[in-house]
Amino acid sequence: MATIKKIYWHLIFVCFFVIHGVFVPSVLAKTPQICNSQKDLKQVKLPVKNYNSILEKPILNVMNELNELPIRFPNAISLASGRPSDKFCQPESSISAINTFINYTKKNSSIPVNRLLGQYGKTSGIINEIIAKHLLIDENIKVKPENIILTVGFQEAAALCAMTLFNKNDVLLVPDPIFIGIAGIATLYGIHIESIPYEDSLNINDIQGVIEKVRKAGKTVKAMYVISDFSNPQGSSLSLQDRKTLLAIAKKNSFLILEDNAYSMFRYEGEKIPSIKSLDDSGIVIYLGTFAKTLYPALRVGYIIVDQDIINQNGVLVPLIDEMKKVKSFLTVNTPALDQAIVAGILLNNEYSLIQFNEEKRKYYVYNRDVMVQSLSEEFAGYKNITWNIPHGGFFLIVNLPFNFTQEMLEECASSYNVIVFPESLLSLYQNTNNRIRLAFTNVPADEIKIAITRFANFVKNKMQANNIDKQL
Ligand SMILES: Cc1ncc(COP(=O)(O)O)c(C=O)c1O
Asked: Ligand 1 mean position to 396 CA, how many Å?
């Protein structure tokens, strides 16, 4: 009996090896092997004239560079890009949001769920009513659902403006330096851009002069892009007076304002300032929104509010939004329905408001900002020629150095000092090297912010010493 038992156990043992030693590798052997070596690939060399030469403009490298810096310098702490903290990106919780939206749809819509979430969808979106309620509650913006298009992030909303609004002689005004998303898209579409200087605040008094210059050149200002709250890169906001002045200038000169309010929910001090859209009684503001910071960036959901009519080529008044829908129908067809369902579900679960929903994030970011400011104060105590702003919200602050910070310095700082910081000049249309650095405080935990600022300070101090720059100057 004992021998039979032994044989039995031997058989089980052998079967185990047969299964795991022979069967499993044969399955693995069927896994396609991707080609990792350049020499196995056939290189096709196209003549240079076969691609769009606009892509050679340096400003179009910046977005990729920002995303790739942490990959190129894996040991460095990155203060370069304005991402929300990883800990607040919670895609797992989105499944229940989809279910909330499905239940809501079953009660409120005659469209079957499989069609609504599974088919090609309405170009303008499927959650417009929910977004309109959210905007009324959180931003005091009154908008009809049919005046909203759900977009693939802010970026598609900007592309819709670029492709719908501008003719050959039309000009876009932008503050400079500026969020690279808008400068990049306008450049790609060959739009003529004129800049309004924005150092610590927007030089509102310069706008009229730039408009005259554009007119003299036989062109027309069609729109101006602005970030009303906690701008990228400067971290500052337009005052209420500036918002009203801008509206008056736009009205007088018949151009549109493209308002981007990506950071409005992240205010750390002071009273909320009304958005330009909510102050607009002449219908000249197009509002571009995103859930990249308030929910999470991978969702790629944003929206655009367009409630203007325009005169078409035949002299007929048509809703501008209809023209934008035409463009979107060929650009992305529709914004992914499941992503919209996640946004809608979260809004439904939170009574249409994201203020309380974002309270933990807001507290985390304000703490991080304070740690960064405190670390800068400690590291640069006695350095009168090194200054920084303390933003009342948003994701960034700016440090002014007593020397110009080049792109080579970015590389040196990252490779030798293990910290990635971002020169503001790379976010300018002119990309002239200057002394200003943008630091993001949202994506790195406070203890790492302290280490990163010490490393950055060591770099700065060594550079000053090497160039005989006195700290008291
Ligand atoms: C000013 C500004 N607008 C919009 C966005 C977000 O754009 P998206 O929705 O395309 O991620 C960002 C992100 O960095 C930003 O800084």
From this structure: 13
